[in-house]
């Protein structure tokens, strides 16, 4: 279910992005559908488990730690390690899937260059949306609804990623 929902959210984000730029590219939509289902869905599902366990370990080790401090630690982990790894994976996967869908050869040197050239823009976009969204998610949203909350925010964020990836 997570993979299907992630594909749908990625499609919505790219369709919104294309609507803003006046373009219509079905291949691009299919690339984002694959990205959502094959990359974002599994990676974020696993990553939220890691962050949840990290928060649980903090609570166990420091039982008097205020919840807001624990949440800030989770956001810090998410926006440092998680943001870098996920954005590198996104840029690399976007290029690989673009090559696959368009039938062009995959070049590791090109993928590496794309990561170098797009990483700063991608991280700035990430940090303009996800620190606050993550803070609210970890602070207010029950664990069983965190992925759903993230998917709602992700529809708008995927629009930003699509604009960046296709610029």
Automatic annotation (TrEMBL):
Pfam families per the record?
Answer: Mpv17_PMP22 (PF04117)
- GO annotations of cellular component type: cytoplasm; membrane
* Key word Protein transport present: no
Q: So which residues are the signal peptide here?
A: 1-17
Q: What is its main location?
A: membrane
Q: Where are the transmembrane segments?
A: 29-48, 68-86, 123-141
Q: What protein name does the entry list?
A: Uncharacterized protein
How does the protein associate with the membrane? Multi-pass membrane protein
Per UniProt, the keywords (alphabetical) are: Membrane, Signal, Transmembrane, Transmembrane helix
| InterPro entries from the UniProt entry | Mpv17_PMP22
Belongs to which family? Answer: Belongs to the peroxisomal membrane protein PXMP2/4 family.
Give the top-rank taxon of the lineage listed in the UniProt record for this protein.
Answer: Eukaryota
List where in the cell it is found.
Membrane
Q: Does the keyword Zinc-finger apply?
A: no
Species source reads: Triparma columacea
